[in-house]
Amino acid sequence: MSMLKFLLRRTLQGVFVIWGVVTVLFGLRAVSPGDPASLMLGQGATQELVERVREVEGLNEPIYVQYADYLGSLVRGDLGYSWRSEREVEMMVLERVPATIELAVAATVIALLIAVPLGVVSATRRGTASDYGATLFSLLGISTPNFWLGLMLILVLGVWYGIPYPSLSGSGSVPIGVGFVDLPTGRRAVGFGEALMAIVQEGSFGEMGLWLKHITLPAITLGTYFTALITRLTRSGMIDEFGKPYVTATQSKGLPGVLVRYKHVLRNTMIPIITVLGLQMGTLMGGAVITETVFNWPGLGLRLIDALGVRDWPLMQGIILFIAIMFVTINIVVDALYTYLDPQVSVE
Q1: 46: left (phi over 0), alpha (psi -120 to 50) or beta
Q2: How many CA atoms does the CB half-sphere of 78 hold within 13 Å?
Q3: Rounded to the nearest 5 degrees, what angle is found at the Cα of 309, between the Cα atoms of 63 and 92?
Q4: Which three-class secondary structure string do you get for 36-65?
Q5: Can you list the domains of the chain with their CATH numbers?
Q6: How far apart, in whole angstroms, are the C-alpha atoms of residue 255 and residue 265?
């Protein structure tokens, strides 16, 4: 099967997955208690006004008609309007995407910078204190809930040691859009791209420093589980590669151990790591909900929690649908990349 046919088949499978997500979301809204029209208008609305809204929004139609209308709107790219803010859902979703992507990428970078060297050390020094320490770190990282870790980081660094961290309280900064405004000085850093442009155009590193100050603890919190996972995967993969004949052959030729370890063994170990990396990026996008809430990070997760609190169903559906689309897309890209990196993997 050619790569084009493989991508078409995976895309078709992804469409069915998205359709399943849409159906489940619509079903949950249909069976949830409460009248959507009353939720849109609030408690002070008259019954006449509620009935009028129900008629305008099509809420008095049979459930299958509402479902067909909803699918038709999605096909046209119309996610509807938020019941509370009366804004287009797609705009409310897209304006929070950069912050969530920044957090997911930062967590991934931190995980790779820590996990790969730690896994290499653990694999090459089996049975030593370094190996036991890396194994213990992996066990703790996988077992620790990220929301608890975030709260502990805030408690230890922000409260006990008094390290200033603007996003921990309202005294230093407040979240605006996809960035933060520093109230005392009026300085604003709107995401990584804005901070990078400040360096290129003005030679100023202040915005980048402010961005790093805000994103460090959330990224560590979100990336801890990922770090532990990659550490264990790197260790087990390298141990498996060390036992293969090509390693013995390269060592018998007199190649330095460092060259064998990093050019051959680690390179072959990176193939499954890349696969897990892609899959975890989708997981990080969806799993950032709690981390964003703990640190007041202005991403999709925080907006989803806010929409959940006021039962803004169109906004909730739009955010979850976007996360599902991102997850499916990342899976397809990773599958294609995996078959490209490893010719032994069939696209059948």
Answers
A1: beta
A2: 8
A3: 80
A4: HHHHHHCCCCCHHHHHHHHHHHCCCCCHHH
A5: 3-94 (no CATH), 97-298 (1.10.3720.10)
A6: 13
Planar angle of CA 273, 278, 280, nearest 5 degrees: 90
- In this structure, what token pair is assigned to residue 170? 């309202």
- Spell out the alpha helix ranges (H) of the chain: 3-31, 36-41, 47-57, 63-75, 89-94, 97-124, 129-143, 146-153, 191-202, 206-242, 245-252, 257-259, 266-295, 300-310, 313-341
Please calculate the CA angle 169-224-273 and round it to the nearest 5 degrees: 145
Between CA 258 and CA 280 the distance in angstroms is 29
Q: Which amino acid is at 183?
A: L
How far are the Cα atoms of 8, 126, 335, 340, 347 from residue 2, in angstroms, in the given order?
10, 42, 14, 12, 7
User: Is this prediction's pTM over 0.90?
Assistant: no
* Average of per-residue pLDDT across 194-208: 69
Residue matched to tokens 């609190």: 309
- CA proximity to 102, closest of 280, 347, 315, 288: 288
Task: For residue 161, give both structure tokens.
Answer: 């040691």
Per-residue pLDDT of 28-39, as tens digits, reads 887 777 667 666
Q: Given a cut of 70, is residue 195 above it in pLDDT? A: no
